[in-house]
Design brief:
By secondary structure, the protein is α/β, with parallel strands linked by helices. It has helices spanning 12-23, 56-63, 80-85, 87-107, 141-160, 189-199, 224-237, 255-265, 290-295, 305-321, and strands at 3-7, 27-32, 47-50, 68-73, 112-118, 129-130, 163-169, 171-173, 203-206, 218-219, 221-223, 243-247, 253-254, 272-275, 286-287. The strands form 5 sheets. The protein has a 7-stranded parallel beta sheet, sandwiched between helices. The chain has a two-stranded parallel ribbon with strand order 6-15.
Length: 322
């Protein structure tokens, strides 16, 4: 049984991928400082260490106990708005911790590394269907940090001879299909809608005068179950070569499109307020997935927007009972 180290494994995507790895027979060792994660996301059947990733010695002590096959790195702060207010905090928690993890690859000769990156590295683009080779123009400090991490990974890889997968997530949504874990925090469109299901409060739409069909921003939303499968496929692929991949569906949905789809399934309709656009927001973007399909020709989208939203509604009820 191969040992996989997962940083940030008590968070939203990290917990889902941890379950995916465990379901497929890997032994998963999770490290998380629980600043934004929740140990309830992973239950008691994982090897778990509460640890500050900024302290390299703490990580070294843990890794010495295991022969690690690969590292999945999800740990980091993800609030885009907060990243503008607290730039130093985000640099320390996102960039410097990533460098610490990369040092582990060198110290312990670990050959495989998978990094949780973001479509925010692209920023505003003339061509809204972005390729991995598109120019990088991050608008937010969060996106700039992710791009810095990507560049550090490539430099370390050349120097210390390990393979990597840099997975650029578009907008990740939905809970685990078995309801073992799911979204934890508010801030994104789907999480704000989820909160409104219970509170019946209005949600904010930031901008209704964009150059789109209904005036609201367009995003590519990928279900966390489809995304987690891409992580497993990437682990197998990087045994031969490194990868940089967009993780999306090659399809965009507007904010109003998403709200209207929720409203088709809910008795209590989601209401909204129109606010001014936020400076860090992008008008429209979705993933060019040619490279993804080339590397993983058998991978297919399994979760439609409606299926994802139905799962989200169940997750909200599950959380109330929990």
């Amino acid at each position: 049984m191969k040992n996989i180290l997962v940083t940030g494994g008590a968070g939203y995507i990290g917990s889902k991928v941890s379950y995916e790895l465990k379901d497929r027979g890997y032994n998963v060792i999770i490290v998380d400082n629980l600043s934004t994660g929740n140990k309830k996301q992973i239950g008691s059947n994982f090897t778990f260490y509460k640890v500050d990733l900024k302290k390299l010695n703490n990580l070294i002590k843990i890794i010495k106990k295991y022969k690690i096959h690969a590292i999945f790195h999800f740990a980091g702060l993800t609030n885009v708005k907060d990243s503008e207010k607290n730039k130093k905090k985000y640099y320390v928690n996102n960039v410097l911790t990533t460098v610490n993890i990369l040092k582990l690859l060198k110290i312990f000769s670990i050959k495989y590394f998978i990094f949780s990156s973001s479509a925010s590295v692209y920023g505003n683009q003339k061509n809204i269907c972005v390729k991995e080779s598109s120019n990088k123009n991050p608008q937010s400090n969060y996106g700039k940090n992710k791009l810095t991490c990507e560049n550090r990974i490539k430099l370390f890889s050349k120097k210390y001879k390990f393979n990597y997968a840099i997975l650029r997530y578009f907008n990740v949504v939905g809970p685990d299909k078995k309801m073992r874990c799911g979204p934890l925090h508010n801030g994104s469109l789907f999480s704000n809608i989820s909160k409104a299901i219970k509170s019946k409060k209005k949600i904010n739409i930031y901008g209704d005068n964009y150059n789109t069909k209904d005036g609201t921003a367009i995003r590519d939303y990928i279900d966390v179950n489809d995304l987690s499968e891409l992580h497993i496929l990437s682990l197998h692929k990087i045994m031969r070569k490194s990868l940089v991949l967009n993780c999306g569906y090659n399809k965009g949905y507007s904010v109003l499109n998403v709200i209207n789809t929720f409203n088709k399934l809910l008795k209590n309709k989601i209401k909204y307020l129109i606010k001014k656009p936020r400076p860090e927001d992008i008008e429209k973007i979705y993933a060019n997935t040619e490279l993804l399909r080339k590397n993983f020709p058998k991978w297919k989208r399994k979760y439609s927007l409606i299926k994802t939203i139905k799962n989200i509604i169940v997750w909200e009820r599950f959380k109330i009972k929990k």
